[in-house]
Amino acid sequence: MQGNIQQILEELDWLEKMILEKTPKVSLTKQLFIQFLMDVFHLFEYLQGDDLADVVKKVHDAATFSEMIGFIQEELSRFLSHYRMNENVASVLQVISRDYQKELSLKDISQALFINPVYLGQLIKRETNATFAELLNKQRIKAAQQLLLSTNDSIEDICYKVGYSNVGYFYKVFRKLCGKSPKTYRLQVMTEHAEDE
Asked: Which segments constitute the HTH araC/xylS-type domain (predicted)?
């Protein structure tokens, strides 16, 4: 892991120097940086979906080279602090990201990591400022949002696909995190998208 991080920093440094020396077109520069960030984040499964789209948009919207570099350094700094966290917490986040649609419990994960579940829960809270359940719900709702917009699946089907076994609870969590029901969310975003076209 540490070797990979060092390699990333060296590659960013090389990319900056190359751009300053060769001064390619702004569009090409943005393309290079976007590709760099996507490669890094994909390698470590750090950002996906909407979060990745936000990063790409910010790089694309940067008005100057220094603004672009500043933003990229800020993103990499967030990324590095994420990976410098406790190894056990990083493992939990990876499990949530990969297996959110399965039946996950802190107890099962702690057994797999050979660590006390109460202690692991405390570590997660300290490192992420959220509980295991909050992190799992956030990941599931993010996946549900993507399915609501990219498929015609029923809300009930989506509920089960992202790991919930109770539709009522899914609605409750979705409303808490998004401020609206899944049905309203789908209609609003689809309507806004249709108006933009």
From this structure: 90-188
